[in-house]
Design goal:
By secondary structure, the protein is of the alpha/beta class. The chain is built from five helices and five strands. Helix 2 packs parallel to helix 5.
Length: about 190
Amino acid sequence: MIKKYLLGLFLAFVSVFSICTSTEAAFEYKPVAFVLIDYSQNVTQEDFLSWREQVRQAYHVPYYEIIKSSEPTDTALKVIKESGLSTSKLDKQTLQKIAAQIPAKVVVILSVNRMEERLVHSWGFYWHDEGDVLQQVIVSADIYIYKEENDKMLKKKLRYFETEDIPISTPASDVIKYEIRKLVNTMEKREQI
């Protein structure tokens, strides 16, 4: 009796497992490469994960999967070096080559040239009193997205310079995060949030 019960339990487990694996196989694996090139030397691991999360939200499982190894970055740097282009002037052919060599269905490249936050004193212009301490945020970055499916490329040259009161100042990392979100939503024709 116990043998029949265990055999029935085993067969039920095998049938459930086979159903799960056949369902998973119905989706094509589409790898997504997120490449960060940091010239500023100010990017932290938290910044990287926050930016990659914006890409993951647009390209999510089961249709897409972020490549979490260093292979995309190594491949992208090699191809960019061979092309002779600077990261501020990448073209579609270079991104196609990067996507083919990784291989990836979507490539997102973020090149951070400058990312700074510093405190400055007001000179008394506009609504600030002379001597007020303000936050100055400077961001220079280039963002590229290439999607193989439609052979489409988008790029954004982000240049941001803002001096605001400390409580309402947007951190440099968030400025980049919001621009990545806007660009991937534009690529996927999603509503901007």
